[in-house]
Specification:
Elements lengths: L3 H18 L1 H4 L37 H27 L1
Helix pairs in contact: 1-3
């Protein structure tokens, strides 16, 4: 409790883990769903952040917030597997 920076880092890490774990509940859209009409500008460019897509869209009209939340799940899984393998090799 005396190390405020470590405490804040732990809280941020916990929030990120919870967001990744709850991605199916929190994400506003399916991460692979393409919005060709609503997700791209009239010129076919990705949309900037707006009220419908909070972080904007990518080049094919997919919601970036949903993709970021689901991508966190993959990253956490890889990190856990790598940690388990390194512990097993250290034994």
């Amino acid at each position: 409790m005396r190390q405020k920076v470590a405490l804040m880092a732990g809280v941020v890490f916990l929030v990120l883990v919870l967001l990744a774990m709850l991605a199916p509940v929190i994400a506003p859209f399916d991460p692979i769903q393409q919005f060709r009409q609503d997700g791209l500008s009239a010129l076919g460019e990705p949309l900037p952040p707006n009220a419908h897509f909070w972080l904007g869209t990518d080049g094919v009209g997919r919601d970036l917030l949903s993709r970021l939340l689901y991508g966190g799940r993959v990253s956490l899984g890889i990190g856990i597997i790598a940690s388990v393998i390194s512990v097993m090799l250290a034994l």
